[in-house]
């Protein structure tokens, strides 16, 4: 028996299978345990119809199902969540091949997440009437039945926008309504996320508006635990915890923004509140309708690993991070989706020399992204048996240890990525222990040039150490495949620009084969050629930018600059640009630079002049400014600003005293009383801006005085309370009250006294005004009775009408099924009472006395 295989046995079951596969003479018997399709096909919940995007989202493929926990700090007990987007399938969003609310899709996503070690999901919430609400409800049902998987909701600012527009950016009431609906709908679920018995609610963008948190806490149910975005949550008295997200430096798409995570984790260290960290593979919103050209490059999987590792700088097995969330599971429009996995740019190239299988992973890939390699053997190229797992960093494997029978085998190498990184299966390579493989040698007449580019590919230098080459196959990477005999060569012309992989496969007389590859870069022209946009064009954003570059020695990376400004750069590796960019309205110079591969960083460039936004309508700025909280503080709001052919993306408010703040909600306290001109400037997604202005007066501007008396006899009511909503006072012995030093505003005053019905009045205070608001209060009594037939049976649904009294009061009620009615507390005075049943009306005069229950019955 060949004992040299024992050191390769890392898993007991696999070792047993290996031993059972040995024949009596010690030769390894090939017993397939898997297939090529299983090892390389889509194993995710992504749609099989989805295709890789220009924002670097990978197409659906084979993804490492190692637990994401394996990438966290040792001994981690951190809960792992994924933010799951609910809006796909809506016509206002990109098509990704599935509908987010589809129960079957949701179940598949939960299974996929669980297979990667994700323990729960966070669902954005835009309200019960939104397109997304069905998905959240279906997700709850799927989570309940999946077992050991929880979920929570994240209230988005968008759920409050309409209310904010109607109420000057005060969203308190709407937030209360949303939270109570969420409580009623979701908190009772066995799968809803709770911390110490409290349901968890995340808040994203709610901080853009004003919220009266005291009122929120007094009117919502179930005492939820609020987790608010960014490190400011740890100093916010209204937050029970904070979660990090992703932040972008528009000036440097290569910045992974680890400093943002450092700021979040650093702030969390000095707080006892719950901290939810974040991990992401990158960011790219160039395909989104709201694009701002915000990019964090993925760096072939290193951004993913680096953001995960960041938590380990601050947390350990003795100091645990509460939770961490993936940003995101499936936001395909912002280039953060992890559903299809993270592409680590591995391009496997296997070779066989003697009895040694070797491979390389390509120039862009990092060994840090690879967990291990798996070597497979097959007789038919489709049904596979794993020979061994090989540690990352090792790129060769000795085949002689298996005492393989003399015949032709097909070998594959699979680069298994670290958690959620795409697995890559190599091309097939042939092996026969009694037949040395041929050596594939590919010669290209040119590896780069302008289209149409004629390239001659030759196998003339290929050889077979122990025989002859029988067949040669050339695949030019654009669908053209040709074959021939030894020394075969073929000339092919590329008509379109792009990067193509030419693959040469040579077969020897025994059927053993070897493969080699080279790339050909076909440019639209020498140097940098901008295919789109055309110079002089007048276009709307987002702008489709397509360019190619050709430099002797190769292109390292390309940049897109707007008007020569580096902060507006878009950067991509390789010799092709194909992206969508938001460009502000105006006439611009778009410059594209291609950098060569030398250390001198030489470059060539090309530019075009374009006009964008020529047909774009500017936004309509709408500003409201109101006194807030008394004194010299005001609240400015631009939430009602609109853009007819796009969206408002930014708002700045100049308070007229040198202070400028960002909207849509901004607070400011003036140093002194006076009248100030406040101006708001709002910008749309095309870069067009409009303004609106409003004066505001702050400081001591006016007063309100008045008297509270009895409506019955006019006597003064001493000790009555009069309230403005934010302040209150009591009347003196003559029933008089006063408010002085009131800011300019409209006040709704309420006068009340025990045993008397309250009364209200509205007063608008302006600078220097001295206003009077008197109140007449009435005592009240209760009116009740019964409507019956002549035989004494109660008549239901009879109409009771009451008119009269000291305040000319009108009141209508309806009898219950037994004929009873109760009109409640009625101001004192004389009334005419009528009862209508079956088209017949009876009337009766009555008098309401203070504190007395009056009974008036009717018989029909």
Condensed summary:
Helix content is 11%, strand content 40%. The chain is mainly beta and 860 residues long.
Describe the structure.
Helices cover 11% and strands 40% of the residues. Helix 3 (103-115) crosses helix 4 (133-146) and helix 6 (172-187) packs parallel to helix 7. It is elongated. The chain starts with 11 loop residues before the first helix and ends with a strand.
The best one-word shape is: elongated
Q: Determine the N-to-C terminus distance.
A: 110 Å
Tell me the strand percentage band: 35-45%
Helix content: 10-25%
Averaged pLDDT: 89
Coarse structural class = mainly beta
- Could you tell me the number of beta strands? 59
Low-confidence stretches: 1-20
Largest sheet: 8 strands, parallel, barrel
* Strand arrangement in the largest pleated sheet: 2-3-4-6-7-8-9-12
Return Rg in Å. Answer: 37 Å
The helix tally amounts to 9
Features:
mainly beta, 11% helix, 59 strands, 9 helices, single chain, elongated, 8-stranded parallel β-barrel
């Amino acid at each position: 028996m060949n004992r040299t295989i024992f050191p390769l046995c890392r898993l007991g079951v696999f070792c047993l299978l290996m031993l059972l596969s040995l024949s009596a003479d010690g030769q390894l018997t090939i017993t397939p345990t898997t297939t090529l399709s299983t090892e390389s096909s889509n194993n995710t919940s992504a749609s099989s119809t989805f295709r890789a995007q220009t924002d670097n989202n990978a197409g659906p493929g084979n993804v490492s199902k190692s637990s994401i926990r394996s990438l966290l700090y040792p001994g981690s007990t951190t809960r792992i969540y994924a933010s799951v987007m609910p809006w796909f399938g809506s016509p206002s969003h990109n098509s990704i091949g599935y509908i987010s609310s589809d129960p079957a899709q949701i179940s598949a996503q939960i299974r996929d997440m669980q297979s990667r070690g994700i323990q729960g999901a966070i669902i954005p919430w835009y309200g019960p009437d939104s397109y997304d609400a069905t998905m959240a409800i279906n997700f709850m049902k799927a989570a309940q039945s999946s077992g050991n998987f929880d979920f929570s909701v994240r209230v988005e600012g968008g759920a409050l926008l309409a209310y904010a527009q109607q109420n000057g950016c005060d969203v308190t009431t709407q937030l209360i309504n949303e939270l109570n609906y969420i409580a009623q709908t979701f908190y009772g679920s066995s799968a809803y996320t709770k911390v110490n018995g409290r349901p968890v609610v995340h808040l994203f963008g709610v901080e853009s508006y004003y919220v009266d948190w005291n009122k929120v806490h007094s009117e919502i149910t179930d005492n939820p635990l609020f987790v608010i975005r960014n490190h400011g949550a740890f100093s916010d008295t209204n937050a029970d915890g904070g979660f990090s997200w992703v932040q972008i430096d528009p000036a440097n798409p290569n910045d992974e923004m680890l400093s943002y995570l450092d700021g979040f984790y650093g702030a969390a260290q000095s707080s006892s509140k719950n901290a939810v960290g974040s991990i992401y593979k990158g960011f790219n919103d160039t395909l989104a309708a709201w694009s701002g050209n915000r990019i964090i490059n993925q760096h072939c999987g290193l951004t993913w690993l680096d953001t995960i590792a960041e938590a380990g700088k601050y947390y350990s097995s003795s100091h645990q991070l509460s939770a961490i969330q993936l940003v995101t599971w499936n936001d395909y429009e912002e280039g953060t989706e992890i559903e299809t996995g993270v592409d680590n740019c591995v391009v496997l190239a296997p070779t066989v020399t003697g009895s040694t299988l070797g491979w390389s992973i390509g120039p862009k890939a990092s060994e840090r992204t690879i967990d291990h390699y798996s070597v497979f053997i097959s007789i038919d190229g489709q049904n596979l048996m794993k020979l061994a797992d090989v540690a990352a960093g090792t790129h060769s494997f000795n085949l002689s240890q298996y005492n393989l029978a003399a015949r032709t085998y097909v070998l594959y190498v699979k680069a298994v990525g670290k958690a959620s990184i795409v697995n890559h299966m190599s091309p097939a390579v042939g092996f026969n222990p009694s037949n040395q493989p041929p050596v594939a040698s590919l010669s290209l007449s040119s590896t780069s040039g302008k289209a149409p580019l004629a390239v001659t590919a030759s196998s003339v230098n290929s050889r077979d150490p122990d025989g002859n080459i029988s067949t040669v196959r050339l695949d030019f990477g654009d669908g053209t495949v040709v074959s021939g005999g030894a020394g075969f060569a073929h000339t092919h012309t590329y008509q379109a620009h792009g990067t193509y992989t030419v693959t040469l496969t040579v077969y020897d007389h025994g059927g053993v084969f070897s493969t080699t590859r080279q790339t050909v870069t076909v440019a639209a022209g020498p140097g940098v050629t901008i295919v789109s946009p055309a110079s002089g064009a007048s276009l709307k954003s987002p702008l489709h930018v397509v360019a190619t570059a050709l430099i002797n020695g190769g292109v390292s990376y390309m940049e897109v600059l707007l008007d020569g400004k580096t902060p507006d750069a878009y950067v991509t590796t390789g010799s092709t640009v194909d992206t969508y960019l938001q460009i502000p309205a105006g006439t611009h110079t778009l410059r594209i630079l291609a950098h060569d591969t030398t250390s001198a960083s030489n470059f060539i460039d090309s530019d075009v002049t374009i006009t964008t936004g020529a047909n774009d309508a500017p936004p309509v700025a709408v500003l409201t400014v109101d006194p807030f909280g008394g004194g010299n503080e005001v609240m400015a709001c631009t939430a009602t600003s609109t853009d007819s052919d796009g969206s408002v993306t930014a708002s700045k408010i100049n308070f007229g005293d040198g202070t400028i703040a960002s909207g849509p909600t901004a607070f400011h306290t003036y140093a002194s009383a006076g009248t100030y001109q406040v101006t708001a400037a709002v910008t749309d997604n095309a870069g067009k801006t409009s303004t609106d202005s409003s004066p505001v007066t702050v400081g001591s501007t006016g007063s309100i005085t008045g008297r509270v008396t009895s409506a019955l006899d006019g006597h003064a009511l001493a000790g009555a309370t009069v309230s403005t909503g934010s302040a209150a006072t009591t009347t003196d012995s003559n029933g008089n009250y006063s408010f002085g030093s009131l800011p300019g505003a409209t006040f709704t005053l309420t006068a009340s006294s025990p045993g008397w019905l309250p009364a209200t009045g509205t007063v608008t205070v302006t600078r220097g005004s001295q206003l009077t608001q008197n109140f007449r209060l009435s005592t009240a009594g209760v009116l009740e009775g019964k409507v019956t037939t002549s035989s004494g049976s109660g008549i239901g649904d009879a109409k009771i009408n009451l008119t009269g009294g000291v305040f000319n009061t009108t009141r209508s009620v309806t009898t219950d099924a037994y004929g009873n009615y109760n009109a409640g507390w009625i101001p004192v005075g004389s009334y005419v009472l009528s009862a209508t049943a079956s088209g017949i009306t009876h009337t009766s005069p009555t008098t309401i006395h203070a504190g007395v229950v009056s009974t008036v019955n009717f018989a029909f």
